[in-house]
Each structure stands twice: as structure tokens, then as C-alpha cells.
Amino acid sequence: MAIPTLAQIRALHEKHAPSAKAFDLVFTHCEIVWSIAEQLMPASGCGGVDAELVRAGCLLHDIGVYRLFDDAGRLDHAGYVRHGLLGHDLLAAEGFPEPLCRFCSCHTGVGLTAADVLRQGLPLPPADYVPVTREERLVMYADKFHTKASPPRFLSFPAYAEQARRFGEDKVAAFHALRAEFGEPDLGALASAHGHALTEKN
What we know:
This protein has helices spanning about 5-15, 20-45, 50-60, 85-95, 100-105, 115-120, 135-145, 155-165, 170-180, 190-195, and strands at about 145, 155, 195-200. By secondary structure, it is mainly alpha-helical. The protein has a domain at about 5-145: Hypothetical protein af1432 (Orthogonal Bundle), CATH 1.10.3210. Helix 3 (about 50-60) crosses helix 5, helix 4 packs antiparallel against helix 5 (about 100-105) and helix 8 (about 155-165) runs antiparallel to helix 9 (about 170-180).
């Protein structure tokens, strides 16, 4: 499978971003997620993980967010949960293979099941949107430590665990299992480098 270069991925973001502001928000977040995943790989002894595939997954996972901006530049927060599936469809339409498309549809929360979709009444076709490969799990996990909120910020492990608790103790347990697999990132230097706050606890 051919994995796109950084230049190719950046060009794809530029093609689909509705504005420079949207591009900066989404692409910067994707770069940060890659920085977090890059930090976690050696720390967790990720033998057998395809680093180039993880890089592409991190840089592409949120590309569907662009499809949620209206003509006035407002983001559809109510429908935000759709961004993963929208990104999957966008990449598929661009001719990307399924393993790359799945980084979009399988990174929301700590994995969405068909039961989650039905129980929460989410605007998604009932199906399992759950990471299967170690690369998919790493991208999903790294994504949890940074948010595109206004203003963007980093989240500590306890801060995201508290967010996950709203959706059930099973989600908290899943997040702890990811920490056992990949470790916990050091976010202080990244927060300073990007000028984003670090939320230690909610």
C-alpha cells in the first residue's frame, strides 16, 4: 500500500479546507496528534507498528471536519460525531485504500459500537466504528490528548478519563487499557511549544 507523503497530505487538507482558519485548526491538531503518537511509539515499545502508517493516520484522521463547516465558517457542533465517517467517505472518494480511510471512521472516543450509536441516538448508521489494528488504536489514543476546542488545549490522562466517564465506566476502562498498551505522553513541552493550555483535570 502506498502511503502518502506529508506534502501530499497537506495538499489534500488545503484542497478540502473551506478557509485558512479551518485549515490551521484541523491540520495543526493533526500534526500535534502525530507528535504525541511519535512520542508514544518508543516509550511503549511498539514493536511491529508501521510508523509511516501511523503518521499518515494521524495527519488524515480529522479531515472530515472540513465537511462540517457552513458557508459562514461555523462548525456544526451538534453533528460533530459524524466527522469520522465523513472523513472516511472523503478519503475513499479520493481513491485512498480502506486501511487509511479507517483512521477517520475508527478514532472517535475510545471506539464507538453499534450499541453506542443506538443507545446515544447518534446521527450515524448503526455499526461498529472500533479500531482493530495497533496502528488504529495508537492514532485514536494519541488523539485523546489534544482538543480543537476554542481555544485548543491539551488534556492530561485524568482529564480525558473524566470526559470518557460520561459515556460509561466501560469507556474509562477502555482508555486505561490503551494507557497500559501505549503508556502516557509527556504533554508539557508540546503545550509550551504550541502555546496551548494543558488541562490537568476537568
